[in-house]
Amino acid sequence: AAGALPSAVGGGAADGGGSQCLKVTIVCARGLPLDLGARLAGNGHGASGVFCSCTVMGKASSKIVTSRACAQHPHWYHEASMAEFVVGDALLFGVWEDDWAPLGTALLESFHFHPCDFEGELALSEAGRALSAFLYVRVSVVPTAAMK
Questions:
Q1: Cα angle at 121 between 111 and 3, to 5 degrees?
Q2: pTM
Q3: Strand pairing of 50-56 and 91-97?
Q4: Going residue by residue through the chain (148 aa), what tens digit of pLDDT does each one get?
């Protein structure tokens, strides 16, 4: 179901206290403001667009950022690795317009993707009144050796 999160809790071999690696894929967003396309087309900037970021909460150096997409329903298919994850850390996703003007945020707690992977939609909060905006992502913990 849209916006539904699995409840995966439990012990896996990767439950140790050290840093682990994540593979994060930011796929697409939907339900963004209806006037977004017109705003992007009419702003006169060459690098306009909608982009997404993901950060391990409390670890600003872990931030990944997608390219910009000039669409109301952007598709990025952006895959990146994050090496500073520790079990219990949450991921903060943000969808942004132009120069970091917020379009919505979503928090994904680690029990949703550790030890089992997460793939699905996250409801974007702060997306505006009467909007139901969503971000589609995939997150998995991968062995540290596979990230090198």
A1: 80
A2: 0.80
A3: antiparallel
A4: 444 443 333 333 344 557 889 999 999 999 888 677 666 665 555 457 899 999 999 998 899 999 999 878 899 999 999 988 999 999 999 999 888 889 999 999 999 999 899 999 999 997 666 578 999 999 999 876 655 5
Provide the CB-side half-sphere exposure for 18 (13 A, CA): 6
SS3 of 102-141: the string is: EEEEEEECHHHCCCCCEEEEEECECCCCCCCCEEEEEEEE
CA distance 78 to 51: 10
Residue among 62, 52, 58 at smallest CA distance from 102: 52
> Taking the CB of residue 115, how many other CB atoms lie within 10 A of it?
17
- Taking phi first (over 0 means left), then psi (-120 to 50 degrees means alpha), and beta for anything else, what does residue 120 get? left
Contact assessment for residue 102 and residue 32, using Cβ atoms and an 8 Å cutoff = no
What would you report as the CA-atom Rg of the chain, rounded to the nearest whole angstrom? Answer: 16
Contacts of 13 (CB under 8 A, 6+ apart): none
